[in-house]
Amino acid sequence: MASPDVDVRVAGKQLVLEPLTAEAFKPFGDVIEATDNAQHFTINQGFAERYHQLAQVDVANDGGQPAISIFKARARTLPLQLSVLEKHPFGSQAFMPLSGHAYVVVVAMGGDTPDLSTLKCFVASAQQGVNYAKGTWHHPLLALQDGDFLVVDRAGPAGEVNGVEVVLN
Hints:
Number of domains: 1
Shape: globular
Structural class: mainly beta
Helix content: under 10%
CATH superfamily: Ureidoglycolate hydrolase
């Protein structure tokens, strides 16, 4: 879980960090983790357990293709002062940590602009990924330590705007 010294602020107001759970995150997308509650079954002659369909990848509209990338994240300076939110209107975006470190997830509801009254701040464990649903406002990756993340998102036609960004006051 988050250490007590993780301080996240927007417009000078401290946000409350919540543990990342599937139920709490559901309005914003999917939590990706291998839990007993997830659909799973044995494969590969009994040498592996497959945790199946943990997130809804939504990238196919209007010529979009799934893209798998690695983000090499640098640790953010504490306290975290949030200054921007972004959304991807044409596809979902998933992050799965590869380096064994917890990280922070900030999300909000909203249409053309984020509704800051719905801002939520979660601490994700090193074993949890997130999949932002198409159009979900979120802060860019907030790594607490340097590390790599597997990212699954949308590659669209040339010239298409991948994301929309809003600067916070």
